[in-house]
Amino acid sequence: MTGKPPPALELSDVHYSYPDGHGALRGVSLRVEAGERVAVLGPNGAGKSTLCLQLNGILEPTRGSVSVCGMAVGRKNLKEVRRRLGVVFQDPDDMLFMPTVEQDVAFGPSNLGLSEKEACARVEGALFDVGMEGMGGRSPHHLSHGQKKKAATAAVLSMEPEVLVLDEPSASLDPRARREFGAILAGLSQTIVMVTHDLPYAHELCERSVIIDGGRIAADGPTSDILGDAELLAAHDLELPHGFVMNHH
Amino acid sequence: MGGTHHGGGIEAVAAGDSPVHRLDPRAKIVGLIGLVVVAVSLPPGAWTAFAAILAILTGLVAAAGLRPMYVLRRMTIEIPFLLAAAMLPFTVEDGLALGAAVGLKVTIGVLAMVILSSTTPFPRLLRGFELLKAPRLITVIVAFMWRYLHVLSDEVSRMKRAREARGYSAGWLWQAASTGPLIATLFIRSLERGERVYLAMTSRGYEGSMPTTTADRMAIRTRDLAFLSTFAVALASIRIFLP
Predict the structure, then answer these.
(1) Dihedrals phi, psi of B15, to nearest 5 degrees
(2) Residue A53 host element (H or E)
(3) How far apart are CA B230 and CA B219, in angstroms?
(4) A166 near A56, Cβ under 8 Å?
(5) N or C: which end of chain A has fewer CB within 10 A?
(6) Cβ distance A215 to A28 under 8 Å?
(7) pLDDT-based confidence at residue B243 (cuts at 50, 70, 90)
């Protein structure tokens, strides 16, 4: 292999309007290299979650294009795109729909047509990666919110994606679950795109941040620069928690 | 988030341990359904046969370590059926024997299902039905229902609590009117939830047909075969010799 690998994710001039005509994305261009960790920051309603759904072809851009690992996202290769790019949704109850955790984690691999043996190995590996080994037989409603979040992440990791997209990963987690989940994310080798307005979390986990506001990219740079620019944050309705002091890397 | 359920509900009981709990779900499903079929096929007047079947079920309750009060509480769902059976003596000829037979059959059926569901965790029960080649569509629907019933009941209790926190008390008739909007809200939330679940499934490669779940394998052991063959012999003798 020579030369640079293709970018993990590339959006060029992506526009998207909802069927009711409301424009959610108005020309987003973003390139994420393999192995990068990028936080997508923005106030509520900025188009962050819409962006997540563009990345694996659930929503199709009305204009512009998205490519994942060098493949243009389109109807023909959705299966391959969804294998390579996994999305962890905000509410784990939306993801864990099978009676037990391990059945749920096996759902993705089974859809990929893996053999039973391979799928079981994937389930074990994914549960281990999120620190939930031995809990596969539990029912989702017997788990705490933090455990559900881990299980939902395992359900995506079992597909062995190259890119992991997380929508508000720290939402409704208590401090300990938030910290534990952060440690799990920090230990993963995948390219990570994390949509959040938890700025300290972005600072902790991602070296690069992008601010999205009004459906456009408003800023793109090292997280410490972006979070250090109080005026920029204020202009986009973002703020660091009171008393938060950044220690530069 | 109120996601945890405590107390001695059916799930806690089903998660217990006993020789009956340890049997393969398939053995229990086949054995108990066989028992219900035999009971239903008995003619009115086969009292010894009914008694023998009830004795088998009582033995299972004891072996499973289920508390009698718990079993009786679970069995209250049969009361409407018993009331219907109680009408028979007044409406048809020879109704007393017929009513008693119907009542016994209902009781046997309900008791068998109480034993099955109280000794088998629900996911394993579903898996057992799946392995017995129950229609996949049905098991999948039941699985979704079971999973989201919990999510929905949490949602309802949160909404009720929020309502109470703002001075609602169920005792006042005029306030009961707010139950309608509560149900409407719940309906819309469920609809939205359903959409999000579908999106999440699609994101994980779902293309319209549920894959057979690979995890959680089951194996029929000697004890399951012993249980089934004893059951078969007992039921056959009851059916053939007792009426």
Answers:
(1) -85, 0
(2) helix A48-55
(3) 19
(4) no
(5) N
(6) yes
(7) low
The beta-carbon neighbor of A110 closest among B200, B202, B211 is: B211
CATH code, domain with A188: 3.40.50.300
- Residues 144-183 in B contacting A (C-alpha not used; CB under 8 Å): 144, 146-148, 150-151, 154
B:57-116 residues touching chain A, CB 8 A cutoff: none
Contacts of A155 in chain B (CB under 8 A): 204
pTM, to two decimals: 0.80
Distance CA B165, CA B8 (A): 28
Mean pLDDT of chain B: 86
> Is A137 a residue whose pLDDT tops 80?
yes
Percent of the residues in chain B that have a pLDDT greater than 70, as a whole number? 91
Q: Which residues constitute the domain of residue A199?
A: 9-235
CB contact under 8 Å between A93 and B151, yes or no, is yes
Question: For residues A133 and A127, is the Cβ–Cβ distance under 8 A?
Answer: yes
Contact map slice: A 172-231 vs B, CB within 8 A:
172
Between these two residues, A216 and A247, which has the higher pLDDT value?
A: A216
B207 part of contact set with chain A, CB < 8 Å: yes
Token pair, residue B154, equals 């949490």
B18: pLDDT strictly greater than 60: yes
Distance from CA of B1 to the nearest CA of A (A): 7
| pLDDT of B110 over the 50 cut | yes
Task: Please report, for residues A47, B169, B174, the alpha-carbon distance to residue B177 in angstroms, rounded to integers and kept in the order given.
Answer: 38, 11, 6
- Assigned domain for A156 exists: yes
Residue A242 lies in a domain: no
